[in-house]
Amino acid sequence: MTDPERPIYVTSPYLPPLEEFIPYLEEIWDSKILTNKGPFHQKLERALCDYLGVEHLALFANGTLALVTALQALRVAGEVITTPYSFVATSHSLLWNGIKPVFVDIDPNTLNLDPTKIESAITPQTTAILPVHCYGNPCDVDAIQAIADNYNLKVIYDAAHAFGVQCHCGSLLQHGDLSVMSFHATKVFNTFEGGAIICKDAKTKQHIDNLKNFGFVGETKVVAAGINAKMDEMRSALGLLQLGYIDEALEQRKAIDETYRRLLKDVKGIRCIENTGQLVSNYAYFPILVELDYPLTRDALYDQLRQHNIYGRRYFYPLISDFPMYRGLPSAQQDNLPVANRIANQVICLPIYPELTIEEVMFIVSILSNIHFFKD
Ligand SMILES: Cc1ncc(COP(=O)(O)O)c(C=O)c1O
């Protein structure tokens, strides 16, 4: 039964049975290897490469440090083209590297960087493109790569939402020079906090491994101003355990996604974001757009849901470009980003997580469809 008193949040982290984690902890306690590329760290890197279908992956303490290090690893500088429609860590990673973000508008259907608008934002200072596979929906990777090739730019994908997503040629995470993941508690696959960089060759992986360990090479040599971004053994062990449950968790998410789509199909004024061409999705988020013909504004609907104990989130509102450290940039101006500004005022991410019941989904949709009863 749906309990109307129980709050339903936008997500709830997936956790494996606690008793299964205890033997891993005992092993760590026995070995006293807590961090610095320990056995669980090494096992998780290999297991994730196998699961995701990629060749080289470096674990990180979180996705933000992974983004900061990815830019450092490729010596990205000057200006970088990116999306304003993302979590603020995407652009913050540029500022942490002394790089100027240049915001480009998004596509109204994919909500990802619009490749047709990238070229006109390129200047002699541009060195890279930092797109986001928003909500796990793939960017137009071929179009972005063609532009990068023409202008000799690096491409680093913020793939924080894209765990396990497969596109036309296998893992979406193989695209670009690097892909950066987050294993934060809110993500499809979590290690409480965590992240990773996926790269194409062993030499780059070694360089990234050095950078995440203060820039050390061996015992006495420091080759760069690296940071401490290592994932510890406890989180690595948890990741290994989580990986055993990921397929089941994805199946549960899929069922929720399908139910929302089926039930929301005929709700006038609510638009679901369509799959943007991936062959395997991860159902990480369930964004809806509240259109003009819906009886309430987006914010009024958001408030109504809260009154019914349903805590959707307005991801991504405000736009990154509206935060104080970005809004003075020429590219942050509203007339440069009409689509992103419109979408940021229309979107609500509805709850989706493995333990959300179909009954709860039906309850959420009943609020959305019967909104005229709750108006005023
Ligand atoms: C698109 C995006 N990029 C980067 C991050 C940062 O990852 P983390 O929280 O692991 O630092 C997140 C989420 O947390 C995100 O959603």
Keywords:
35% helix, 376 residues, Aspartate Aminotransferase, domain 2, Aspartate Aminotransferase, domain 1, 2 domains, 12 helices, alpha/beta, binds pyridoxal-5'-phosphate
In terms of structural class, how would the helical and strand content be classed?
alpha/beta
Q: How many domains make up the 3D coordinates?
A: 2
Strand content: 15-25%
Hetero groups: pyridoxal-5'-phosphate
Rounded to the nearest angstrom, the distance between the terminal CA atoms is 28 Å
Instruction: Strand order, main sheet: write it out.
Output: 2-10-9-6-5-3-4
> How would you characterize the largest beta sheet?
7 strands, mixed
Order of helices and strands: EHHEHEHEEHEEEEEHEEHHEEHEHEHH
The beta-strand count equals: 16
Oligomeric status: single chain
Shape: globular
CATH domain class name of the largest domain: Alpha Beta
The named CATH superfamily of the largest domain: Type I PLP-dependent aspartate aminotransferase-like (Major domain)
Shape-level CATH architecture of the largest domain: 3-Layer(aba) Sandwich
Rg, nearest Å: 21 Å
Total DSSP helices: 12
CATH fold node name of the largest domain: Aspartate Aminotransferase, domain 2
Low-confidence stretches: none
Residues in helix, %: 25-40%
Pfam family, one: DegT_DnrJ_EryC1
GO molecular function: pyridoxal phosphate binding; transaminase activity
Protein name: DegT/DnrJ/EryC1/StrS aminotransferase
InterPro entries: DegT/StrS_aminotransferase, PyrdxlP-dep_Trfase, PyrdxlP-dep_Trfase_major
